[in-house]
Specification:
With about 170 residues, this protein is an all-alpha fold. It has a single domain, classed as Four Helix Bundle (Hemerythrin (Met), subunit A), CATH 1.20.120.450. Helix 1 packs antiparallel against helix 4, helix 2 packs parallel to helix 4 and helix 2 packs antiparallel against helix 6. The model has no long low-confidence stretch (mean pLDDT about 95).
């Protein structure tokens, strides 16, 4: 149940990330880095995809994905269409992998030692969901900053949670 909930939240937030990318009016603005901002929206998207492809896909799903974390922050000028394709590919890997993570496996240690620490898989999956949400908010703020405004894209909708169901009026 927990893995399904986490998978649904990750899927929801990755869909919102795609909408954020599509809301930039051109392929240049996701890469703009205004003064005082460390990362472009495009680099944050690459980082989220690399992070989930490696930590969920490669570590839990044995996909063989090889991460180039430095490139996540140095690569530039990837078209919005390609960024969306990477987000969609990441979402498919996360969904497929987490569908196979059940019960007792969640209580086991995550396969990697992280910053000198062992953590349970369920704790780390919750961490990954909040990590994605953090960067989703940064991308939203970046988009509004470089585009001179812009409205919300419907991120983090409760209606998209796995247990959401309509209540009769």
């Amino acid at each position: 149940m927990l893995a399904a909930s986490i998978a649904a939240i990750l899927a929801r937030d990755l869909r919102a990330l795609s909408r954020e990318i599509e809301a930039y009016p051109d392929d240049e603005l996701p890469w703009r880095v205004p003064p005082g901002i460390a990362n472009s929206g495009g680099n944050l998207v690459l980082h989220v995809c690399g992070n989930l492809q490696y930590l969920v896909g490669a570590q839990l799903g044995a996909t063989g994905f090889v991460r180039d974390r430095d490139a996540e922050f140095t690569q530039r000028a990837v078209a919005r269409q390609e960024l969306v394709a990477r987000v969609q590919a990441t979402s498919a890997v996360v969904e497929r992998t987490l569908a196979g993570v059940i019960g007792e496996r969640l209580a086991e240690d995550f396969p990697l030692v992280l910053n000198g620490r062992r953590v349970r898989t369920d704790d780390f999956l919750v961490h990954l969901a909040t990590h994605l949400a953090y960067h989703l908010g940064q991308v939203d703020y970046h988009r509004r900053l470089v585009c001179g405004g812009g409205g919300p894209v419907g991120a983090m909708l409760v209606a998209e949670l796995a247990s959401a169901r309509a209540v009769p009026a």
